[in-house]
Amino acid sequence: MSVVIGNEEYDWEMFENNCEYKNGYTSTDPQIRWFWEVFHELSLEDKKKFLLFLTGSDRVPIQGMRDIKVSILNKYNKIFM
């Protein structure tokens, strides 16, 4: 028996809008735009797998997608060189 927590009201635009960019990345960088372009082309099942990879669950938290915080950072920023 398993207990299901969360719901299936996915708002992928909110997921993207809540993403933070660090170490020199911004939402307008080509790499970021390419990432989101590919992400939005994924099937629902693949998006759910990505959510599972990030959060440990393929479901939306009770409070909604706004509670999922994702950061994308530039590993190769000059700060680290």
From TrEMBL:
Sample GO molecular function, one term: ubiquitin protein ligase activity
EC numbers, comma separated: 2.3.2.26
Keyword annotations from UniProtKB, A to Z:
Transferase, Ubl conjugation pathway
Q: Which Pfam families match?
A: HECT (PF00632)
Tell me the Gene Ontology biological-process terms attached to this UniProt entry.
Answer: protein polyubiquitination; regulation of signal transduction
Q: Give, as one word, the top-level EC class.
A: transferase
Reaction(s) catalyzed by this protein? S-ubiquitinyl-[E2 ubiquitin-conjugating enzyme]-L-cysteine + [acceptor protein]-L-lysine = [E2 ubiquitin-conjugating enzyme]-L-cysteine + N(6)-ubiquitinyl-[acceptor protein]-L-lysine
Q: Where is the signal peptide?
A: none
| Domain HECT intervals | 1-81
Report the protein name in the record: HECT-type E3 ubiquitin transferase
Annotated source species: Papilio machaon
